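Q: Sequence in, structure out?
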Amino acid sequence: MLKTILGLIAFALTGAIGLAGTALAMDAKLPKTLVTTAYNTGTSGYSQMVAIGSMLKNRYQVNLRVLPGKNDVSRLSLVKRGKAQFTATGSDSVFAQEAVYTFGKKSWGPMPVRLLLLNLSSGCTTFAVANDIGVKTMADLKGKRVAWVRGAPSLQKATEAMLAYGNVGLSEIEKVEVGGWVASVNGIINDDIDAAVTASQSTFMLKMEASPRGVYHPPMPFADKSGWARTQKLVPWYVQGICTDGPGIPDGRSEGIASIYPILISTTDTSDGVAYAMTKALVEGFEDYKDGAPGAEGWALEKQMDDFFLPYHPGAIAYLKEVGRWSDKAQANQESMLRRQDVLKQAWDAYKANPADDFDKGWMQARSSALTKANMPVVFESW
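A: Exactly. Output:
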């Protein structure tokens, strides 16, 4: 009798769970207006979100407002304040999760970042280098004028990591500070800068190519294992990729850092239903926008990663499970990243309750200690 009752309860619970999943699929709708932030106008990330916005309008009568932000803080602050549901961004999404650099300040702290989908294109994360200075390798950048975008730790860390491949330290370049990424490209064209971080498929690379200085992207051959070890020690979520998209690529094909950009994220404040519906729209409307902007083909469902350095949004997971794109590997990574975020949040709350006189330095130590105790990689020791 007891077994029968327990069986009925289990059956009822299973049915309820199934109905809940069905309800999510049936009831999830996008609001008439959505807001996302992105990189500056003219960047590949901004252009892709505009193309996605056109798809949303034509298919679902949904207006997507794309707000450009010149640096990491401006893009993520609107999400933090609830003024935007999403941001199409880069490594700064990881920095926000980790509460490092600007995001480790007293007014920020660890963000409960949640991934919807990411773009893994045929471009690469690389340096846009003026083609008139003879630079052919990362090592050749020693002594050159390299853009340093204020308020953009993701671009600064990318600069450091790619230089490390060539065994070039930050003290061995001439940093040229600029207020935004577009200014760094214009600085190259105007002969004030020699190199700047870019996505090879950015439309601004066409502008550079047409300028008197031209554009070149130094490769990062996979055979240089020491160089890759130095790069991945600084940015562990950088993965190897074949670069074919964009002007300035040596022989039209080179080895480098796979361009995982942009990354569409939200936070736990975005409802499961909205995240589900947005993920579904991005997948089912893919054919409508994949040719609408450079690199947009990288949003394809088959290009999604199971082990990125962020957890997925529950709404996105619900859709990925529906289409058979959620694996055991993805689930294990999800649980690992959620544990990491929990460790960071607990460490932050404990530290803020009794902070050191030097808040930033004290947080660096508290963060490192908490992650080490949890047997998790610290990645960012200091900044």
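The mean pLDDT is 91.
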